[in-house]
Amino acid sequence: MALKLYYDLMSQPSRSLYILLKYANCNFESKLLALRKGEHFGEEFTAINRLQKVPVIDHNGFVLTESVAIIKYLSRENLIPDSIYPKASKQAARVEEFLEWHHAGLRLHCAMFFRVKFLIPSIVGQPEEPKNIDGYLRRMEAALKEFDTKWLGRGNNFITGNTVTVADLFAACEVEQPKMAGYNPCEKFENINVWLKKVRDHFNPYYDEAHEVLNKIGKNKFKMASKV
């Protein structure tokens, strides 16, 4: 097997790469790690990635970490279609412009809200602190509003124009993450709602496959919230 993907589908960038490789019909070996069990801290995986994070690829012995670096590499190696990651300079620059923004502009705030609202309470077995969550919620909603208006609200079907790219896939996986904490961005931001349906349809059935566990957790969270 030429390509190995180390991942956990609870991880946003892991889902992005999993979906992307499936969509590209790229034959890869799945190396699933359970982050919730701390498998990424084990000696075997630490020998592969000293940073102890996923996703990671091993391509014929070449090990690479960091999801954006990985997709750029996959593009140069012609393992993903040009339509998803364009090789033309200006089109590629538009995709990379968003990917540069999304780390601090979108991912940080969605991930931190998920962390304090769902992940930490689940690990320590204690309920979340509402006062602590309020600040993270405000910052996440400010980021979602900026994404909704300044990236999606420009008359295009997708982030960089009228063609879906990896920028849309990475953003979609980030926007999905707060659902596990009982927050659905689609209910408050109309541009996100319309756009996300298009992204999901484009990458299905792999998109739904990658989000199966997330959607189950999200549904349970919404049921619990409705009973409160």
Automatic annotation (TrEMBL):
One of its GO terms (molecular function) is glutathione transferase activity. Gene3D superfamilies: 1.20.1050.10, Glutaredoxin. CDD domains: GST_C_Theta (cd03183), GST_N_Theta (cd03050). The keyword Ribonucleoprotein does not apply. Keywords: Cytoplasm, Transferase. It catalyses: RX + glutathione = an S-substituted glutathione + a halide anion + H(+). Signal peptide: none annotated. One of its GO terms (biological process) is glutathione metabolic process. The keyword Cytoplasm applies. Residues 1-82 form the GST N-terminal domain. Belongs to the GST superfamily. Theta family. This is Glutathione S-transferase theta-1-like. It comes from Trichoplusia ni. The gene is LOC113501724.
